[in-house]
Amino acid sequence: MSSEYSSANPENRRAFREGIRAGAPIGAGYFAVSFALGVAARNAGLDAAQGGLASALCLASAGEYAGFTSIGANAAFWALILATIIANARYLLMSCALSQRAHEKLPFIHRAMIAYGLSDEIFGVTIARPGFVNPRFVYGVYVTALPPWILGTSLGVIAGNALPIRWVSAFSVTLFAMFIAIVIPPARSNRVLRVVVPASMLAGFAAEYVPGLNALDAGTRVVALTVVIATIAAIARPVPDEDGEDVRKKEESVS
Questions:
Q1: How many angstroms separate the CA atoms of 143 and 24, rounded?
Q2: What is the per-residue burial (b if ≥16 Cβ within 10 Å, else e) of 3-12?
Q3: Which of 46, 125, 148, 162 has its C-alpha lying 20 to 30 A from 184's C-alpha?
Q4: Bridge partners of 246?
């Protein structure tokens, strides 16, 4: 089975090239956001090498920011770990969703490599492709998306406070625009997404004012809402199998 994912396979080479093209705009957005994170790393006392290494190991804006602010506040080691886990908890949900699209015989090494670089945007472009997940596509995305993220953090550390903080903060707007560009195309052709996406946005906004929920940090609220909304959508509109049959009805008929 591992030979099917070899770089010598023409289909895999094509998937790799498609991944490179898909990762290019992601890398442009990542550079701007990671540059701002680099400034936060610099304020926490990290140098360029340490900031770049943190980005290479974490690859998550919220998780890195939580880590940098914890370091800057001289927080305990366990508090830094807990803050990072909470901020990155949404990736557990993304991993579960993506694992359903992985072939059952996909080698562990490919699963581990896909899990390593999984982010919101990389998850978006990967899950949007039909069929099983091709790790070569993901690796192509890595080529153009991850280096700018790591380099941007290091350069942000070097720049430090040389640039006005308003300029640096404004760069992060490109990440939201890029994520919208990833979500909108599949939502136009999927009725479930056309309902779930705006419902999620409204729920996220309302959660900030609901007693109890507004006491939770943003990362925990996102995870909780994701679980609830995804569960409701899965029950109401199950994903059909390859033959177009409702999986739930098929299982009921067999039983």
A1: 9
A2: eebeeeeeeb
A3: 148
A4: 240
Instruction: Return the ∠ at Cα 119 (arms to 222 and 130), rounded to 5°.
Output: 100
Q: Six-digit token pair at 192?
A: 């479930």
Question: How far apart, in Å, are the Cα atoms of 214 and each of 84, 108, 177?
Answer: 20, 39, 26
Interatomic CA distance for residues 23 and 15, integer angstroms: 12
* pTM of the entire predicted model: 0.67
pLDDT in tens, 121-179: 899 899 888 888 999 999 999 999 999 999 999 998 888 767 666 676 666 565 566 56
Give buried/exposed letters for 42-71 (b at 16+ CB in 10 A, else e): bbbebebebbbebbeebbbbbbbbbbbebb
The strand ranges marked E within 63-221 are none
Burial readout 127-154 (b: 16 or more C-beta within 10 A, e: otherwise): eebeeebbbbbbbbbbebbbebbbbbbb
* pLDDT, tens digit (0-9, with 9 covering 90-100), for 171-224: 656 556 656 766 677 677 778 878 888 888 888 888 888 888 778 766 567 667
Report the C-alpha gap between 58 and 52 in whole angstroms.
10
- Are the C-beta atoms of 25 and 174 separated by less than 8 Å? no
Q: Which amino acid is at 250?
A: K
